[in-house]
Design goal:
Helix content: 10-25%
CATH superfamily of one domain: Galactose-binding domain-like
CATH topology of one domain: Jelly Rolls
GO molecular function: sialate O-acetylesterase activity
Shape: globular
Radius of gyration: 27 Å
Number of strands: 36
Pfam families: SASA
Strand content: 25-35%
Protein name: Sialic acid-specific 9-O-acetylesterase
InterPro entries: Galactose-bd-like_sf, SASA, SGNH_hydro_sf, SIAE
Keywords: Hydrolase, Signal
Largest sheet: 11 strands, mixed
Length: about 675
């Protein structure tokens, strides 16, 4: 999720649908390098003058049609994987598209953890960016767009790129590792249509038709159908943001007196520990600008080396100066601060690092458990690390009132369905991969729960979940399948990773509630879930381990989409029963049996009586079952596993090394 000034301030015009043109045209998805879906009837479509004759030739097949209402479409027979092929379309003009492949096409959607590009994880996977030569993995990346008046017909930007060192940096990291695994296993080209948007809620990805079951979201959408309202919103938000930052700049004592480069004593500067946050270290500063500084001593040999600053993550924005020169800046918390220092800037002796921090979310400082160091390297001596942890000094430069709330246009209901999904609906696809939910966590509890009208979720198990997302996400999947009109195609999704500090005692958790909603979505046909609680980071909503996530999604695809017989997920809770004061949990997907990772006792298992006050329990793990009991719980009614924002150390796995999903289950109706 991105908390930089909302992108809506940067978008100044709505994207508009294509209209009939004098020339025959094709959609952007059908450009050079496209991957088209094998083994399904193949749609080729576009626009032309009314009644214009259009001829299409592709892979030895030919079809002719006439444009009606400015549109034309032909359907070619299903074809096996192969290529490269040439697509020729002729009418009053002639079009040619080259280097097209037939393979499997997957839509990658959701929010920032699906969007996060390989470039953002390049230090974790340096060999991927430098050495990947897989031209049969291709991605079509769609920039941020929004639309409120209905589905758009085409994208205004985007092109197909191949997984080569020259083009791979912008690929979705999850999407790439997913595609890489599939290519290894299937040997057919993989195309990813990448449409995620950081921070986007699920309702933004649903059609207006589907939102009819959610009147509060449908009501929220209506004002944005008025162009004047949209333009006024953009203008007002931009004015508010510009005013706040202008006032901050004018008030900032550090800018006035050139704290970035001036020779400064420590008078008026207070000590602080890095990493850490100012407020937890006794400061009352929350909003505005604060400067922090540190001096480090380097030898002449050290100063002559290639240097990179690692500054973890900073809340919120930063401008980093070394010896008076700006070396990097970032506008919001989440991107890693990794700044290359220009050659010749460091010197023997004292070197000054000064950082201007802009705080607009009330908690300025340096995120803990991140890397804070100056990395020095050369070919002869290798790498040397100069720690930047420890004592720094800070000085408040300006205090501000809170920034006025803004409206992110592409977070509004239906906005992303219309602009980012709808133009792909004519494409034949293999399926969807989805990583989203963080932006819906705050609506995961029982307050404001949406009970479906019309029996859309009639199964008795629906009563178990108190999460709006339980219904919203299932309806999103139904909506997309209905819109694509390609049956119940595979829909694979990532369960939210661990996040936030771990707790020692059982507790309530909105993150756990949303994970439970995701788990129940597996009741829909042709779905699979990649559990990621062991691939998260407590201090980062964007964990770096995207390879584990992509590979687990691929396991689900191999089973659901490709019919492979394999263990594709961790242990799945099948049944719950009670025997006296003990609870028996039975699991499927165990392989050769359940496993307590690392040995020892099963962690994060809890029981509750009718009061639903959970206590840690003990457990006996057998081949495909767990027997659970707890002192003081004579009549257990509820059982939970890994029920926390961050169930650190959760250790229930199967023999394939895949983790069990967190869960909550009721025992009230199963007592023996």
């Amino acid at each position: 999720m991105s908390f930089l000034r909302p992108l809506s301030l940067l978008l100044t015009a709505l994207f508009i649908p294509c209209t009939a043109l004098a020339d025959v045209t094709l959609p952007r998805l059908l450009t050079d390098g496209a991957v088209l879906q094998r083994d399904k009837p193949l749609n080729i479509w576009g626009w032309a003058d009314e009644g214009e004759k259009v001829r299409v030739r592709f892979a030895g097949h030919e079809a002719v049609t006439h444009a009606a209402n400015g549109h034309w479409q032909v359907t070619l027979p299903a074809m096996p994987a192969g290529g490269p092929y040439q697509l020729e379309v002729s009418g009053k003009n002639q079009l040619q598209r080259n280097n097209l492949l037939l393979g499997d096409v997957w839509i990658a959607a959701g929010q920032s953890n699906m969007e996060q590009p390989l470039n953002r994880v390049r230090y974790r996977y340096p060999e991927v960016l430098a050495n990947t030569e897989q031209p049969r993995i291709r991605e079509f990346n769609v920039p941020v767009a929004y639309a409120f008046k209905g589905p758009l017909e085409d994208y205004t930007q985007g092109q197909w790129k191949s997984a080569t060192p020259e083009q791979i940096a912008g690929f979705s990291a999850v999407g790439f590792f997913f595609a890489q695994t599939l290519l290894e296993q299937t040997r057919v080209p993989i195309g990813i249509i990448s449409i995620p948007v950081g921070g986007s809620p699920a309702e933004a990805w649903m059609s207006e038709q589907a939102l009819a079951a959610y009147p509060h979201y449908l009501k929220q959408l209506q004002p944005f159908k008025d162009d004047a309202h949209v333009q006024a919103t953009i203008a007002q938000d931009k004015a508010n943001s510009d005013q706040w930052f202008a006032q901050l700049g004018a008030a900032d004592e550090g800018l006035k007196h050139q704290w970035a480069s001036a020779s400064l004593s420590l008078d008026g500067w207070q000590p602080m520990q890095v990493p850490g946050f100012l407020r937890e270290q006794g400061s009352d500063f929350s909003l505005g600008a604060v400067w922090v500084r540190k001096s480090i001593e380097l030898s002449a040999i050290q100063a002559d080396k290639k240097a990179t600053l690692w500054l973890g993550a900073i809340v919120d924005g930063d401008q980093v100066y070394v010896n008076g020169h700006l070396v990097g800046q970032t506008g919001y918390q989440y991107p890693p601060r990794i700044y290359a220092i220009p050659e010749g800037l460091l010197k023997a002796g004292a070197n000054e690092i000064r950082i201007r921090i802009t705080s607009y979310s009330n908690n300025p400082g340096f995120v803990k458990d991140k890397r804070y160091a100056l990395l020095l390297s050369d070919a002869a001596t290798g790498e040397e690390t100069v720690s930047l942890q420890g004592q720094w000094h800070y000085r408040i430069a300006a205090r501000m009132e809170p920034m006025k709330p803004s409206t992110t246009l592409h977070y509004q209901p239906a906005s992303l369905f219309n602009a980012k999904l709808a133009p792909a609906l004519p494409m034949a696809i293999k399926g969807v991969i989805w990583y989203q939910g963080e932006s819906n966590v705050d609506r995961a509890d029982a307050q404001g729960v949406h009970r479906q009208p019309g029996g859309q979720c009639a199964e008795p198990s629906c009563a178990v979940s108190t999460s709006e997302y339980r219904y919203l996400f299932a309806d999103l999947i139904r909506d997309w399948r209905r819109q694509f009109n390609q049956g119940d195609f595979p829909f694979l999704f990532v369960q939210l990773a661990s996040f936030l500090p771990a707790r020692d005692e059982p507790t309530e958790s909105k993150w756990a509630q949303l994970r439970e909603a995701q788990r129940h979505t597996l009741e829909l046909p042709n779905t699979a879930m990649a559990v990621a609680i062991d691939a998260g980071e407590w201090n980062d909503i964007h964990p770096q381990d995207k390879k584990t996530v992509g590979e687990r999604l691929a396991l689900g695809a191999l089973k659901v989409a490709y019919g492979k017989k394999l263990i594709a997920s961790g242990p799945a809770l099948d049944s719950v029963s009670a025997k006296g004061n003990k609870v028996v949990l039975r699991f499927s997907e165990v392989g050769r049996g359940l496993k307590v990772q690392g040995g020892g006792a099963l962690k994060h298992i809890a029981l509750a009586g009718p009061d639903k006050r959970f206590v840690w329990a003990r457990a006996q793990v057998k081949k495909d079952q767990i027997i659970v009991w707890a002192d003081g719980i004579d009549e257990p009614h509820w059982v939970r596993y890994a029920w926390a924002d961050n169930p650190e150390g959760a250790n229930l796995y199967n023999s394939a090394g895949l983790p069990a999903s967190p869960f909550e289950a009721s025992i009230m109706d199963t007592r023996q």
